[in-house]
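== Sequence, structure tokens ==
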Amino acid sequence: MQQWTEIRRRVLSGEISKRAACREYSIHWDTLQKMLTHVEPPGYRQSKPRGSKIEPFVPIIHRILKEDQHVHRKQRHTAKKIFERLREEHGYDGGITLVQRFSSSALRSRRVREWKHHRQEVFLPLVHRPGESQVDIGFADVLLNGEMIKVCLFVMTLPYSDAIFMQAFPRECTEVFLEGHKRAFQFFGGVPTRISYDNAKVAVARIVGNRERTVTREFLRLQSHFLFKEHFCLVRRPNEKGHVERLLDFARRNFLVPVPQVDSLERLNEQLLVRCDTDLERKLRGKSTCKRTLLSEEQLQPLPRQIFEAHRLGQAHADSLSLVRFETNSYSVPTKYAHRAITIVATIDEVRLIFAGQLIARHCRHWGREEFFFDPVHYLALLERKPGGFDHARPLEDWDLPLCFGILRRRLEADFQGTGTREFIKVLRLLERTSLPRLKRAVEYGLEIGVLNVEAIRVILDAQAEQPIPLFCLDGRPHLKFVRVAQTDISAYQTLLIGG
């Protein structure tokens, strides 16, 4: 730069000529012209555009960004995630800077950026002690059996170790909230001493003042079982649990991008557990050890010995069709409980229906809307009184019985003129106390020996259920080997026949 300035000063001031400057400083004529044109060295100027490593991958980047327009905004690809996919799936060997340049969703003016910087809130760094935890609920898109659905994400984090636990459920509700805690405690191997929450209705029944909360009955049951302290954030102040907010976004962008394609949520949750466990090997900035080592330093309470059941209780009345409605879906109960008050116990997997403390029906939990779920056995008692509706009963419409039952019905209808269908229903009612495979074996044996009535099949069923009496083992009882029991003289019973 010093020589540049000296040559410009001497030539432009007329001290020396251009040719003299070229001879004295041993520079080319074109170089001298550049010096006289520019106040300072302009640096390297590319005359022709060079080929970039990113160019062959630009269509892939555009395709990923186009697909992101149809998924949850918080589940879209970041430049870092696109860079990782290009490197792992397409063999890209360039740097991340080129990817960032082409994957920017929109270019904003400097004025807008500066305005946003001035508007952004500043937060205070917090101290996270071992044993403290934070919980949040999020949402994400999942391609389940070819259909795009939105799932609820339960997330629990331990800020001290930065450990994260995430599971996906059909939607947010009380039983999902409870089941998420149960699984998180099992994953971490203990119960945090203090958990921070927002003010979700599944936990908070009423807000009283700034910090006082009236919690729900199910939250109290959860807290009474696992014995942790609760902390609820101020209204519209989620930054009080900013750690779980940040890790939720991290997990959604790293665990659920691209959009997972699975055949069941159980399979997705298995994948999430593996990724949460793998993430424990990551080393945090400013920490000397990995997250798994820090997790072992968490001051967690031991898990209770008693198993906690994550369920929700409800009350409903069975209608005239022996159906109980729960969350817009209807589940059947035996017809003798129609018009009765039924207690509903709902978990994430099943719905149990209880009357007077007795379990009367159980169904797999369905997360759709306005569906009907029948157990054909529940309606057999009513059909025995109304056998004419057997072939038109909706609960029996999709009942796929084994072939032997069809043969039995035809023979009963041939043998019992006019009452064969009722006799067949009586046989089916044996399912009220046994399983279908066992009744099938009894029916097949009855057909084989030619016994075609309900009483005979019941006897066969009971005989097949009997267990043979095992031999008494003398091991460890040596004194019993010397006991001798006299043989009974059965001729003495003959006196009973002759009146002696």
Q: What stands out?
A: Residues 401 and 436 are 9 Å apart (CA to CA). The radius of gyration is 39 Å. The chain has five domains: 2-37, 55-119, 132-296, 312-373, 382-500.
